[in-house]
Amino acid sequence: MEDSAKRRQKEALQKTAAQELSAGKHLLEEGRYAYAWYRLNHVYDFNVSFPELDSLLVKCEEGMGWPRREPELVELFKRYLGCPFRLFTPQPDPHKHMEAYKRAWKTGKTHGFVPVFISVSGTEHLMEMLVANADPESEDIRQFSPERVAAYRKNLLETPLPDANEILKKAAGDMNLYEEVKEFGIMEAEKILHNVFWSLFGSGTNEFSENPPTKQVMLAKIPVQNPWEVFAWLPMGNWNCAPGPLEMMAVAKSWYERFGAVPAAVSGDEVEFYMDIPAGRGRTKAELEALAFEHNAFAPDTWESQLIDTSYLKKCRYWYFWWD
Predict the structure, then answer these.
(1) pLDDT score recorded for residue 219
(2) Phi/psi of residue 270, each to 5°?
(3) Fewer C-beta within 10 Å: the chain N or C terminus?
(4) C-alpha angle 52/58/60, rounded to 5°?
């Protein structure tokens, strides 16, 4: 009975996705490129494969005058990830990105995946780092071995995680947040609160710039059960003061269990977390300052003034980290 119900559900999803695809193709033929692009992108939500989908989207984007895709980098990530994803080409604003992310976050909880935005625009830095960590034997990012990458992920997932508190204490050393505030100053929380992922934008821009375009990104459905395991699939870190993948997993696990924060977006030098409810809601000033200390220890290159402003941590559902 259960198998029959699942089969009927799958057939219903395929039928609905096919209807969206047909509607998108019809709109494209009429030259209604923006409407066609919206309907065709909706097909990704059903996790149903249609080989012609990407080529149809490209025609829509060309018709709207959007920048061309960067196909080589996309293909590299597609081979490296080995999981479903939805590609977003550069767009005027990030609202469709955020709608898609929140839908995927809700469905992923019951379908065994964690959605993550991955920057695939303009630079190979992220892919270079991922390959260097997961397949150091490879001499070129285009020649990495998917088998070695898979073995690396498996090994990382089976390795006991170190203690997050010890990682952060060691990273902090003799750090004094109040001394750093004297050096860097304080930015008002209202100026840094945001409701989108900053890594969706190009370097040096954020949502407070005047109409900044988004980068080319993919929303990948990482097939892991626990949010912190994203860093086994996307092994960030191991350069300058950035923690290594195992340390990132340990800290992410601690933050998820205490605050519900999940890794949600990455680029070559950025990691962002999302939570349904602001982590600082209902917490004391001392608790917020302790969290600010953890943030600064995790990524000391990120704006120090942002982290000491406890009103920011009390209100914001998006945590942004950057390493030089």
Answers:
(1) 95
(2) -135, 145
(3) N
(4) 105
